[in-house]
């Protein structure tokens, strides 16, 4: 066992008892880890004009969102549904930023009715907003022409992505805003997800500041999320050096603020970082077989439970749980761990050295707190798992029940 894993919360729970009570598979979150990771972000820079919004598409469990709010984060919503949940979690309209793309006028109206600021990411959407909310406030999402991320599908800026307004349309955007009396109060970007080296982020900060300088009277500049976590923990992958990042970020912001000469605020929008490491999935091995040359470990953690591997070829460390402890074996037999969904791509991990696994064994999939449950589905009409929270006092709290068969009928109640 990697020494870093000694303190992992999976060593502090009774996995077998939890699966018995709540069913397998099961999402387990650790409150302590969640609060620590949130604080890493909130305390990144010590200035009152620096704020952190949580991008809740990474995890929108209502109970976790309440913790996010308690810890002093604001929030980004990508849809009316996320706005709805944020309100239920107690966020004020002024704490919510609607960062949408390609939405209807009705969706914009949903935010406007609640006095929630909208970021538009095309001139087309700016026109739509201007028509329904003349003389209102708006933020513009820019695409500085370069992006970064762990996979082509999560690079969200650059010349080949759908996001943002390109830089040379600044004057056109201003003209449309003027036509409708819209006040451009903020600009934002999000260049991509999961960087572990701060360089591309800092470059994008410079790019957005260059764009910000072309606007007067901005209230805020929002640099987006993307802060990575080390998924390959057993391979010595290093954490993102937040201290170094902060040291390089601070002077850029201080200098710009001085030049800009107003009470400008800066924000970041992490989604993955606060939640990823506080979450794990417990699952059960149901079958072991060798098909030709590959040994398959058949589990109940299909891509209806965790979609990241099939969607982005993502890597998650996987452990066996024995006697209440996490067990790994870097020299173990290489196996392919798969789920129970009828799709060839339903692979959790390929050629992974594991301790010997047999039917009935419990596995733990680490770092599944972000883009885990939020992407879970009922594909194959499987029931989405329950979610439980290991609280700071060491209790287990059910924070979302497992789906029931009745839930599969919810859309047919007419
Ligand atoms: C998804 C998203 C984020 C969060 O990205 P992470 O990589 O999870 O930090 C931030 N801002 C916007 C606009 C997003 O779409």
UniProtKB/TrEMBL annotation:
The keyword Lyase applies. CDD domains: PLPDE_III_DapDC. GO terms for biological process: lysine biosynthetic process via diaminopimelate. Substrate binds at residues 272, 308, 312, 343, 371. It is an enzyme of class 4 (lyase). The modification N6-(pyridoxal phosphate)lysine is found at residue 57. Its cofactor is pyridoxal 5'-phosphate. It holds the Pfam family Orn_Arg_deC_N. Pyridoxal 5'-phosphate binds at residues 226, 269-272, 371. The active site is at 342 (proton donor). GO terms for molecular function: diaminopimelate decarboxylase activity; pyridoxal phosphate binding. Keywords: Amino-acid biosynthesis, Decarboxylase, Lyase, Lysine biosynthesis, Pyridoxal phosphate. Specifically catalyzes the decarboxylation of meso-diaminopimelate (meso-DAP) to L-lysine. This is Diaminopimelate decarboxylase. The lineage of its organism: Bacteria, Bacillati, Bacillota, Clostridia, Eubacteriales.
């Amino acid at each position: 066992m990697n020494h870093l894993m000694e303190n992992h919360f999976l060593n502090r729970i009774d996995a077998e008892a939890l699966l018995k009570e709540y069913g397998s598979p099961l999402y387990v979150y650790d409150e302590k880890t969640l609060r620590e990771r949130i604080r890493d972000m909130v305390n990144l820079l010590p200035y009152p004009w620096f704020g952190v919004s949580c991008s809740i598409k990474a995890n929108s469990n209502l109970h976790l969102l309440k913790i996010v709010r308690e810890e002093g984060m604001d929030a980004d919503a990508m849809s009316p549904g996320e706005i709805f949940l944020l309100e239920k979690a107690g966020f004020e309209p002024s704490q919510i930023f609607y960062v949408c793309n390609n939405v209807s006028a009705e969706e914009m109206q949903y935010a406007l009715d609640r006095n929630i600021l909208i970021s538009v990411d095309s001139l087309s959407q700016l026109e739509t907003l201007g028509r329904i909310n003349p003389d209102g406030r708006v933020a513009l999402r820019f695409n500085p022409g370069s992006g970064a991320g762990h996979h082509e599908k999560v690079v969200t800026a650059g010349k080949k992505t759908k996001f943002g307004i390109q830089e040379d349309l600044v004057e056109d955007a201003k003209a449309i805003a003027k036509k409708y009396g819209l006040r451009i109060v903020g600009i934002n970007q999000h260049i991509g997800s999961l960087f572990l080296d701060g360089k591309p982020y800092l470059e994008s900060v410079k790019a957005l500041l260059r764009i910000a300088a072309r606007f007067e009277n901005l209230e805020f500049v929002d640099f987006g999320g993307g802060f990575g976590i080390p998924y390959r923990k057993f391979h010595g992958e290093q954490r993102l050096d937040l201290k170094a990042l902060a040291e390089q970020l601070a002077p850029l912001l201080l200098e710009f603020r001085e030049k800009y000469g107003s009470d400008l605020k800066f924000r970041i929008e992490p989604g993955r970082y606060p939640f990823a490491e506080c979450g794990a999935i417990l699952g059960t091995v149901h079958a072991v077989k060798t098909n030709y040359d590959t040994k398959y470990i058949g589990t109940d953690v299909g891509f209806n439970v965790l979609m990241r591997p099939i969607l982005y070829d993502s890597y998650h460390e996987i452990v066996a749980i024995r006697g209440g402890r996490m067990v790994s074996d870097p020299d173990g037999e290489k196996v392919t761990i798969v789920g129970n969904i009828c799709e060839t791509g339903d692979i959790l991990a390929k050629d992974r050295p594991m301790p010997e696994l047999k039917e009935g064994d419990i596995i733990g999939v680490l770092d599944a707190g972000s883009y885990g449950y939020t992407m879970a589905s009922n594909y194959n009409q499987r029931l989405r798992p329950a979610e439980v929270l290991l609280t700071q006092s060491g209790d287990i709290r059910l924070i979302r029940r497992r789906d029931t068969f009745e839930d599969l009928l919810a859309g047919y109640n007419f």
